[in-house]
Automatic annotation (TrEMBL):
This is asparaginase. InterPro entries: AsnASE_II (IPR004550), Asp/glu_Ase-like_sf (IPR036152), Asparaginase/glutaminase-like (IPR006034), Asparaginase/glutaminase_AS1 (IPR020827), Asparaginase/glutaminase_AS2 (IPR027475), Asparaginase_C (IPR040919), L-asparaginase_C (IPR027473), L-asparaginase_N (IPR027474). It holds the Pfam family Asparaginase. Substrate binds at S76, T109, D110. Keywords: Hydrolase, Signal.
Amino acid sequence: AVPHVSSSCKGHTHQNGNLPNVTIFGTGGTIASKGTSNTQTTNYKVGVTIEALVEAVPELCNISNVSGLQVSNVDSGSINSTILLHLARYVNADMANPISHGSVVTHGTDTLEETAFFLDLTVKTHKPVVMTGAMRPSTAISADGPLNLYQAVKLAGSDEARDRGVLIVLNDRIGSAYTTTKNNANSLDTFYATEQGQLGFFIDQVPKFYSSPSTPRNKPHFSIGDADFLPQVDILYGYQDANPALVEASVRSGAKGIIFAGVGAGGWSESGLKAAQRMYNETGIPMVFSRRTEDGFAGGDSIYSFQMTSGFLNPQKARIMLQLALLENYGNEEIRALFYGQ
Ligand SMILES: NC(=O)C[C@H](N)C(=O)O
């Protein structure tokens, strides 16, 4: 269950029955960070609480009865599977509460798409679940966090956002957890979608969707049970002359599956593939070939029968899906079919 959270709107002792109830789950990231001056936009420190984030945007209380819960307060590179599993349980419980209209998760942008995709595959709800973050710390001139948070809460309180899976909001754009990825390490307008497109845009803080709700083809759902962590799945990056020994190193350190961020549409060197085949013969662990390019489809003819391909999923999303499939004890043929549908 979600620990009891009281309204974060100071002076609002009663819920306003005309406004939607929205819970914000804080996990950290730049949106929750502070620099030592208002021009500092690198090397700032995470640590601003979810209460302080909400207090900084009193306008949130005009559009929702907002409550906050601190799940973690870390850079998103430090989000681990234990935090993911807790977060999924909290959001599932919040969405099962009839009085909740939607959930918001604030998160570092570096791995935001991984958490969004994880929640998309593990939270069962028709209600809006919206993730947001920021590219500038809360102390910066023109910090982007406050308006991103406002738009995320607005979206979580909107009926039009239902039945669209987990949504990602940053810099006015509304994207799907399935297709949105971080594209630029520094700029504000970093989240946009792959070929499959954006879902909508904010005009004067009103969400405008381009189309009625739709669901990604063959989208699975995974129930996470009472797991405390996810199986180890490593990602190996493809490059010329990729070191074949890394496959074995990954297996020996406990990997239960490997994602290859392959060259082109999932390619890998011949010597690397032979090393992977040897490790596959020894362990039978699933090996899924994705792409190191920003966009595209990894699939088609594989050289070796053990190779699986990730379809449109990028390596980091393929990893989340493989972890969840392994957690649910999918066999290799089921995993192959799962990825074949993506
Ligand atoms: N813009 C950000 O949020 C980056 C930050 N390093 C993170 O936690 O992901």
